[in-house]
Amino acid sequence: MRKIKKQKIYLLALLLPFITFVIGFEIGPLVAMIKNSFYADDGIQVTINQYITIFKSKFYLQAIQNSLVISLFSAVTSVIIAVIAAYSLTKFSQKIQNRLLMITNMTSNFEGIPLSFSYIILLGNNGLFTLLFSKIGWDVFADFNLYSWTGLILVYIYFQIPLAVMLIYPSYQGIKKQWKEASSLLGGSTSSFWLHIGIPVLLPSIVGTFSILFANAMGAYATAYALVGSNYNLLSLQIASLVASDVALKPQLGSAMGVLLAATMIGAMWFNERMMRRIRRDLR
Amino acid sequence: MSYVTIDQVTKGYENQVVLNNISITLKKGEFATLLGQSGCGKSTLLRSIAGLEGVDAGRILIDGIDITNLSPRQREVGMVFQSYALFPNMSVFDNIAYGLKMKKVKNIKSRVKKIIEMVDLIGKEESYPHQLSGGQQQRVALARALVMEPKVLLLDEPLSALDAKIRKSLQKELKRIQKELDITTIFVTHDQEEAMTMSDRIFVMNNGQVVQSGSPSEVYTSPVNTFVAKFIGNYNVYDMEVFRKIVRNRELKGTEVAIRPEVLQLVSVGEDSLDLQENWGIKGFIKDVSMTGNVLRYEVETEESAFHVDYLHHRGKMFEQGALVHILVPKKECIIL
Fold first, then answer.
1. Are residues A216 and A149 in the same domain?
2. What pairs with residue B152 in β-bridges?
3. Is the pLDDT of residue B307 over 80?
4. What is the pTM of this model?
5. Confidence band of A2 (pLDDT split at 50, 70, 90)
6. Strands of B265-268's sheet, edge to edge?
7. What are phi and psi of B138, to 5 degrees?
8. Are residues A102 and A76 part of one domain?
9. Which domains does chain B have, with CATH numbers?
10. pLDDT category, B78, cuts 50, 70, 90?
11. How many domains does chain A have?
12. Is the same domain home to A229 and A268?
């Protein structure tokens, strides 16, 4: 008995760095953020005024709305593209699949300031392609402005797709060839197979991927900051300027917005989960 | 009048011939089995009939219609897979109803209900595949195929993944349902015992060819070549040159001889007088005894060769290892190949 207890203590001791890390860098800041959000600007008085300020301010509400819209839009678009792209990936030989996955893996890490900078170099006002195409006389980019809503969405989708492909690809291995064969023998077409069997089977992974993409976009900061600076009103940019700016330092208000950001992510996950359970009754 | 005709079907992958000029005809309501070792082409033939694989040459006809170039969904055949291939996201009811929904037929509910009764799955309608045992899953797969009232039912080793007991009971049930619906059935298996129990007709396949066809008893008692003899009946097979020496008879013709292990008799040396009119007597000793339950299998070594001898496991006499015996080989039972 004693031996087992000792072993357990050793095992727990090995977990210690991990537990310390989680408490120090994840739970700690979260608790501090929630606590902070209930203080007035002076940091002494306990109040819910910070939340009231946010909900009364058109400016902040617009930031939340913008963030929600860009996150939803880029997540939905990327998931749809990734579902198709991951499927076509599975159609290649194993060798090519491995190579394409390697590229996907690399590009999925390509985000933040380097990504924005690359876009600026290639498609900015004085970008390589912008200038090249205007010299050649193609005006495809004449109406395109990288530092706008469209530009921002383009960049968001760009960094979301590889991640989505990486996350959805493995679940295609779970689709058995014989389900397709059985479906076709029972009179089902390819599209009815995907509609009734393929997509529902993939759904948990699609939904999970969507949640991750949504959170990824909601929290994306560096990419947006490098591209549009404070020209565009996004939740993550507002939080940053409230907690780290030289002009209006209001960490309590920033915390309250951070709490709202977290709440929307949790809400999105909960909603996804509910929707999935409705369609995949076998998983209940 | 043949209901299913497979006419000179040939198929190959790259340099390998998988189906070599196969011709088979089946009557309506017949239960036919394609029997062979893995890689003999039996599953490929079944999949070609289903339309899941194309053929390089030849024709396949069902009920007078040439289906060789039709898609699987146009062929009106049902298929049951070894791995069941049930749709995991659908309940038992929805799995069975899927085909009917695809065809947009009426009274789906009553048809599904009827077939659920037939395969004895009442009460499981709302269960999901992962909540069922292997045997139950295979019943669902069978019901899903049968509810479409296919012209031909194709079964690709449907019982191979199940344990022995459930397998035996499903064999019986499958046979009962097949007779009840009078549905033409093609069954693929590598298990000769299963083939014997279930079939009206067996097609023994080897290297992409049908090497012998006939009723189970025909195939069992008169194998046409060494392969069938060894595969289907665990026969003793000897080169004729060797056999002539064993029985000391130079006038025997043929190239090989096959003898079933259960027609041989063992007599202790010096015990009885031997009937050497009808039999050949060969002296040997018991090298090994093994038991498969109801059968005792003796390995008897003789001067020139060795024999397998099968006895029913009676309570009576058993030969000990090392005992000296005469093997009585009935002359009539020697099959010259």
1. yes
2. B77, B184
3. yes
4. 0.81
5. low
6. B265-268, B324-330, B279-291, B295-302, B306-312
7. -70, -30
8. yes
9. 4-231 (3.40.50.300), 237-336 (2.40.50.140)
10. very high
11. 2
12. yes
Chain A residues in contact with B52 by the CB 8 A cut-off are 181, 184-185
Interchain contact, A201 vs B99, CB within 8 Å: no
Q: Give the whole-angstrom CA distance, residue A229 versus residue A214.
A: 21
- Is residue B15 within 8 Å of residue B209, measured between CB atoms? no
| Helix, strand, or coil (residue A152) | helix
The two tokens of residue B121 are: 């799955």
ipTM above 0.90, yes or no: no
Instruction: Assess whether A17 and A111 both reside in one domain.
Output: no
With respect to residue A248, please indicate whether it lies within any of the assigned structural domains: yes
CB atoms within 10 A of CB B197: 14
Contact A185 B50 (CB under 8 A): yes
Range of the structural domain that residue A123 is part of:
51-283
**Closest CB to A186 among B52, B88, B148:** B148
One-letter amino acid for residue A191 of the chain: S
Residue A96 CB contacts under 8 Å (≥ 6 apart), including other chains? none
The alpha-carbon gap from B130 to the nearest alpha carbon of chain A, in Å, equals: 8
Say whether pLDDT at A235 is over 60: yes
3-class DSSP state of A159: helix
Distance CA B91, CA A77 (A): 31
Q: How confident is the model at residue A1 (pLDDT cuts 50, 70, 90)?
A: low
B306-B310-B312 Cα angle (round to 5): 160
Q: Please check whether residue B79 touches A, CB under 8 A.
A: yes
Task: Compute the mean pLDDT over every residue in chain B, rounded to the nearest whole number.
Answer: 91
> Lowest mean pLDDT: which of A133-142, B111-120, B201-210?
A133-142
Q: B87, A281: Cβ pair inside 8 Å? A: no
Predicted confidence at residue A3, as pLDDT, reads 67
Show residues of chain B in contact with A197, CB under 8 Å.
87, 89-90
Amino acid identity for residue A93 in this structure: S
